[in-house]
Amino acid sequence: ISSSRMLGVISQIRIDLASCFIFQKGYDDLQVIVPTCLQQQETAVGTQKMSKATILQKTIDYIQFLHKEKKRQEEELSILRKDVMALQIMKDNYEQIVRAHQNAPQEDQDQVSDELQFSIFQSMMDVLFQSFVTSVSVSSFQELSACVFSWLEEHCKPQDISPNENTNSIY
Fold first, then answer.
1. What's the whole-model pTM score?
2. BHLH domain location, by residue (predicted)?
């Protein structure tokens, strides 16, 4: 064999060894990065090595898991963004109501005593509290959140909130 041919063969062997080293380093890195590979490596007896096919399969499984988790988080984020938007709309509406009441001209009529105002407020709140207790589940924050808005819409309409008969006699 000629010396130039020999140098070519040696050069090819070096390239092949470098490629093998790079591939092996890649497999070693995957074993450290992929949690299921790392778990299996920690529970392996002695110096038993995982096959390259097992490393690749566990890597594929982990990537699929990450994709599913990302999709789930994106869906959760979308729901939370919708909730924030709904709450912002509600906040804006309530602020408009407050501004409208603040800007409404006040009629100079006989003032109602604080005791009478408190008595009326108390009777209205007693009725609301009773409906709240029977309609809204407070066993978890999620159930409370799910129930409270429908309760507000159903029981806290201005036309539905009125003092009971006991307070009507006070007027």
1. 0.49
2. 7-66
